[in-house]
Every structure is written in C-alpha cells, then in structure tokens.
C-alpha cells in the first residue's frame, strides 16, 4: 500500500510538472500572439506614406515607427525600398514609375496615365521594369492612376485604362504583383477621372484579374461619397489597400475631424482583410512622429 501511494505521488508530480510546463508554454504563446495581434492592429499591418514626411529621412521614420508598430514605409521607389529594408521595414505599395513620352509628356503620375492610349507604350515599359525590380525585393503591390479627363468621357477613359493595364497583367501575374489604382477626390485633384468607387469597381470588372485592385482612400472617398463603412462592406473584394486622412483638412485622424477611424478599421478587419493601412495624413502638429504614432494607435484594435 505504501509503495503504491509513493508511485501515485510520483506520477502525480510528473503529470503536474508536465502540465505546468505545457501551461507555461501555452501562456507564453498566447502572450506572443497577443503582442503580434496588437502590433498589427488585430490583423491590420501599419504603413505610412513617405511623401507626408518629406522633412524626415527613411531612417528617422523607420527608427521611430518601429517602436510603435509601423512595419512599412510606402510609395517608395525600388532604391528607396532597399534602404527601408535595411531598417527592417517593407514597402506596402510601390510608387508609380514615370517617364517622358516621345512627345515630351511626363506620364505615370496622377494627371497623365492609363486613360490615354498614346501613353500606354511608355507606361507598359516603365511599369514592367519597376514591377520586375520591386518583385525581386519581395514587394507585392504597385500603385497606378487613371489620369485626368481633359474632356474625355468617363466610359472611354475606363476602356482605355482597361486596355493599357491588361497589357501589364502577364508581367504582374508572373511576379505575383498587384497593380492597384487609387481613387482620388475631385477637389484636391480637379478633373481626375478615377473619383468614385463605382468607376473603380467597374474598371476592375472590365479588367477581370486578381492582379488588379483598387486603393480605397478613406479621406478621398469620404469627400466624394461618404458612407465609408457600407462601401467597404459592399466592395471590399475589390480593395487591396487603404489610406487614411482626416476630414476636413487631411490632417491628424483624431477627434478634430469627422471620421471614426476605430469603427472604420473594425469594418475593414471584419471583411477578413489582413493587409496594410497606410497613414496618408499631413501632420499639422510640430511633432510629426507623435502624430504618426497617434494615427497608428487609433487604427490598432484593442
């Protein structure tokens, strides 16, 4: 009886030790997953548009940003991406390449882009090169624009955009890159053709490829359409990226403006989105990094 009791105790202590070890491992894993979840905004990854911080170097943004959960600096060119990578950050969406046509028109930016057939040869050339260089660095997304109307009918412009972008699909598909067209408002960018979700999703349907998506800029589309959360719920399958910005003013996304970003981010994550949200507001405060930190925290779900 005594021997049996002694063995039972040893077995109990052995099981208890194993149980404690497993519990500690589980607790450690749970803490790690929770920390990762918090850092990524509960599925969201945090990025920032470099052009909003032109007075700050990539190194300065990276060093400050990594401390509060930033994992990307976006709208960079391939040579700048390499610099961001040396600081442990990626580039959520690559900047649009641009070049002059044989007629001296600089194309690839907001005003002169895919809605004009005469730009297609130049755009296909520079985008092919940029996609190949960016993919070699591990990038997955590159921005593009419709171009301004300049009197062109929206339907004709849509057809022209589809025709030009389709020429890039083989290289995008080969390198597992997504070409993403940004929607902009007509007040900051007068005459820009891609100024509504309806136009953008119709273009995506015309192209008909998972290698083409839409950048839903919350700031721009709040100005043009409002109804942001319902638009995200109804059209999220078309969106590969999101941008922030305070309305009115395009400054900090805090209580000084009309959008409820925690609710918007929750709506985005509810769709299953696990990509990046890019902070694209222009800081009005002197301490720009504090404003960026606040923006990331606002878009981090607790």
What does this structure look like?
The protein is an alpha/beta fold. It has eleven helices and nine strands. It has helices at 2-39, 58-66, 78-86, 120-136, 154-166, 169-174, 197-207, 218-224, 228-235, 261-270, 288-298, and strands at residues 45-49, 70-74, 99-100, 106-107, 141-144, 178-182, 212-217, 239-243, 276-279. The strands form two sheets. It has a seven-stranded parallel β-sheet. Strands 3-4 form a two-stranded antiparallel ribbon. Helix 5 packs across helix 7 (197-207). The protein is globular and about 45 Å long. The chain starts with a helix and ends with a helix. 40% of the residues are buried.
N-to-C SSE string, H for helix and E for strand: HEHEHEEHEHHEHEHHEHEH
Largest sheet: 7 strands, parallel
Total of DSSP H or I helical runs spanning 4+ residues:
11
In percent, how helical is the residue content? 40-55%
How many beta-strand runs?
9
Question: Tell me, what's the shape?
Answer: globular
Supply Rg. Answer: 24 Å
Order of strands across the main sheet: 2-1-9-8-7-6-5
* Secondary-structure class: alpha/beta
| SS strand fraction | 5-15%
- State the end-to-end CA separation: 55 Å
Mean pLDDT across the residues is 90
Unreliable stretches (pLDDT < 50, length at least 5) are 1-6, 16-41
């Amino acid at each position: 009886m005594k021997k049996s009791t002694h063995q039972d105790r040893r077995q109990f202590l052995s099981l208890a030790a194993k149980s404690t070890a497993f519990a500690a491992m589980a607790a450690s894993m749970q803490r790690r997953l929770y920390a990762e979840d918090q850092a990524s905004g509960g599925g969201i990854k945090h990025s920032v548009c470099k052009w909003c911080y032109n007075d700050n170097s990539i190194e300065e943004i990276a060093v400050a940003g990594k401390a509060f959960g930033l994992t990307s600096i976006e709208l960079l060119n391939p040579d700048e991406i390499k610099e961001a990578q040396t600081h442990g950050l990626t580039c959520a969406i690559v900047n649009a390449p641009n070049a002059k046509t044989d007629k001296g028109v600089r194309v690839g930016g907001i005003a002169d882009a895919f809605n004009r057939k005469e730009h297609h040869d130049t755009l296909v050339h520079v985008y092919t090169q940029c996609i190949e260089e960016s993919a070699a660095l591990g990038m997955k997304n590159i921005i593009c624009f419709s171009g301004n109307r300049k009197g062109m009918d929206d339907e004709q412009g849509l057809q022209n955009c589809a025709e030009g972008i389709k020429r890039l699909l083989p290289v995008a598909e080969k390198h597992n890159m997504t070409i993403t067209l940004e929607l902009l408002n007509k007040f900051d960018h007068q005459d820009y053709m891609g100024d509504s979700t309806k136009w953008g999703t119709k273009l995506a349907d015309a192209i008909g490829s998972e290698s083409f998506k839409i950048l839903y800029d919350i700031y721009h589309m709040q100005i043009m359409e409002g109804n942001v959360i319902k638009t995200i719920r109804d059209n999220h399958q078309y969106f590969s990226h999101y941008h922030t910005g305070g309305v009115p003013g395009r400054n900090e996304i805090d209580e000084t403006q009309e959008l409820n970003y925690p609710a918007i981010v929750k709506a985005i994550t509810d769709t299953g989105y696990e990509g990046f949200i890019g902070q694209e507001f222009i800081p009005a405060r002197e301490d720009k990094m504090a404003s960026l930190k606040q923006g990331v925290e606002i878009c981090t779900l607790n």
